[in-house]
Amino acid sequence: MHIDKDLVAASATPLVLSILAEGETYGYAILKRVRALSGGELEWTDGMLYPLLHRLSRLGYVTTEWRTPPEGRRRRYYAITDSGRAALTEQQQQWAAVTRALRDVWSGSGGVLAALGEAPG
């Protein structure tokens, strides 16, 4: 299935912040985690991830640190900040509202329409 680029872009920040809330990590590991979480349906590229990480850093949502593990090459590690956790909480609330609305309208129960005082059909 092809996921529209607008939906991918809209979900990128909460996905990355959620992954970083699990623990600090580096870029390639984030790409692998996104792929695993989506069952392979989200195939992000470096060209999408790294500009997002730089933006999150500028916003103060993540910190970065270069490290060279004993067994490998030098990598930039990313960690979520308190501001990033606050932003993630806000994103979670927004996505919960969107998900609820979509679930209601897609279920055919008329949940959203009934809440608006409108009859389905």
Describe the structure.
- By secondary structure, the chain is mainly alpha-helical.
- The chain has helices spanning 5-22, 27-37, 46-58, 82-107, 111-115; strands at residues 25-26, 62-67, 75-80.
- Helix 1 (5-22) crosses helix 4.
- The model has no long low-confidence stretch (mean pLDDT 90).
Relevant terms:
single chain, 121 residues, mainly alpha, 3-stranded antiparallel sheet, 60% helix, 12% strand
Radius of gyration: 18 Å
Q: What is the general shape?
A: globular
Beta-strand fraction estimate: 5-15%
Largest sheet: 3 strands, antiparallel
Secondary structure tally, helices? 5
Helix proportion: 55-70%
- Strands in their spatial order, largest beta sheet: 1-3-2
What is the N-to-C succession of helices and strands?
Answer: HEHHEEHH
Total DSSP E strands = 3
**End-to-end separation:** 29 Å
Give the low-pLDDT segments.
none
